[in-house]
Specification:
homodimer; alpha/beta; Rossmann fold; 2 domains; six-stranded parallel beta sheet
Amino acid sequence: MSEKLRGAPVAAALNEKTAAAVAGLSTRGIVPGLAILRVGVRPDDIAYEQSAERRCAALGIAVRRVTLPAGASQEALTEAIERLNADDTVHGILLLRPLPEGLDEKAAVGALAPEKDVDGVTGVSLAGVFTGSGAGFPPCTARSCMEILRHYGVPVAGKRAVVLGRSLVIGRPIAAMLLAADATVTVCHSKTADIPALCRAADIVVAATGRPESVGREHLSKGQVVLDVGMSWSEKKQKLCGDVDPDAAELTGAFTPVPGGVGTVTAAVLAAHVAEAAERIKPETV
Amino acid sequence: MSEKLRGAPVAAALNEKTAAAVAGLSTRGIVPGLAILRVGVRPDDIAYEQSAERRCAALGIAVRRVTLPAGASQEALTEAIERLNADDTVHGILLLRPLPEGLDEKAAVGALAPEKDVDGVTGVSLAGVFTGSGAGFPPCTARSCMEILRHYGVPVAGKRAVVLGRSLVIGRPIAAMLLAADATVTVCHSKTADIPALCRAADIVVAATGRPESVGREHLSKGQVVLDVGMSWSEKKQKLCGDVDPDAAELTGAFTPVPGGVGTVTAAVLAAHVAEAAERIKPETV
C-alpha cells in the first residue's frame, strides 16, 4: 500500500512559521498586506481568491480585493497594478490569470513590481528560480511541491526526477528547484519519446500535464514518490481529478492525493511569501 | 569514423549574416559598437579580448577596450560600467570574468544595462533564456552550441539530450535552449548517479564539466552527437584539451573538436549579438 502525502500537515507547518513571522512584523508595527487583483468573474479565480483570502486573514495578513469588470481596458488594468505597486500597505500582489481575452497578460505581468510578485510570475522571479539568486519569489505551486518533499523527508539529492510538463507556472520552475536541490532532472513534454519508460526509471515524478488521469500504470513503478500537480474537472467521473490515475498511484511508494495534496499547500505558500515580502523591506524605508 | 563538427563553417555563416546586418545599420547611419571591459591582465581574458576585437573589427563593428588595473575598486568598476551604459555609441558590453578577487561580480553584473548585455550574464538575459521571452541575449557559448546543431542539421526535437554541468554560463542555459527546441533534456552534475549510463542513452551530449577529457568511452555510444564545450590546458599533455577524450569521441556519430569546435563560434555569436543590440534600438530614439 502506497503512502498518501497529504498537503494539510505541510500547510499547517508552514502556517505556523508564517504566524510567527507576522507576529514579528507586528512588533515593528507592520501588517503584511496582500492585494488580489481579479479581472472578470471566472469561477476558478473566485474559488482561489476565497481560499487565499481565508488563509491570509487567519494568519493576520490584511487582504484587499481589487476587482475589475471583464471588459476592463489594458490601461485600467495597468493603472490598478501601478496603484498597488505604489501602495506601502500592500506587500504582495496576486494577479489572477488567465486574464479575459483581449488583455495583454505579458504587459500586465511586466507592470507588476517584482518585490511584490508573491506568485512568481515576473521575469525577476523566474530568473531568481533559474539562477538561484533568491530574487523575487518562486511560483507558489512549484514551491508547494518542494515543501511537500521536505516535510515528508523525501531524499532529493542524487535522485532521478522526471517532470511531466514544461509550463512556466510549474514545469520549468519545479525542474530548476529540483536541480538546485541536487536532483538529476529530466523535463518531458509533448515531443518526448517514450515518456512511460523515462517515468518508470525516476525516483520522483512530478505530474504537471494538465490532462486528467493521463499518468497511468505504464508510467509508474514501486518505491517512487509522485507529486500530482493536476486539478481538473472530469466530466466523465463528475469529480475533481489529478493528472495521475489514483488506482495506478497506489503502485508507487508515496503520492499526493487530489484533492488534498499539492493544491492544499498553495495558499499557505502564498501567505508565507506575503510575510516574507513584508520582512524584506528594510526598516529604514518603512 | 565519426564526423568532426568544425566551428569554422558555422562561424562563417553567422558572420555573413552579421555583415549584412551591419551594412543595413550603416544605411541608417549606425555603427554598432562593442565595449570590452577588462579588470587586470589575466592571459585568458586578453586572448578572448583579442579574438573578439579581431572578429568584430573585421565585420565593421567598432570596438573599444576599457581596461582597469587589477587593484581597481568596486566604485571604479561601477563607474566604468555606468559610463558605457550611458554611451549611445556602445551597443554591447562584454565584461571579462572572473573578476580579480575582492571585486563583487554579482554587483558588477547587476550594474550592466540589460539591453547591452551581449554575453547573456544579467538576470534579464537569463530570464529570457529560461522563459523564451527573447529579452536580453543568451550566453554566447550556449548559443554557439545551438548554432552548431542547426548548421549541421542535427535533429533536436524529440531527441534525448544530456547536459553535463549546470553552470549559469553554459549548463543551465543550454539545457533551457535545448528544451525550447523540443529536446528531452536531462541535466547531470556532481551529485548525479551513474552519469555514464545516462550519457550513453542520449542522442545529444553537451559536455560542460570543465574537467579535461573527463568524458570517455564509458559515456559515449554510436550515432551520438557530442558538443564539447571544455577548453582547458592539460599539463600532462601540454596542450589545449576539451572535456571529452578525443579518442573516445571517435566512437560517436559526430563531435566538435577542441580546438576548432564550439570555441571557434563564440566570437561570431558575440558579434551577431552586438549587431542585434544595435538593430533593436528604435529608430526614433537614435
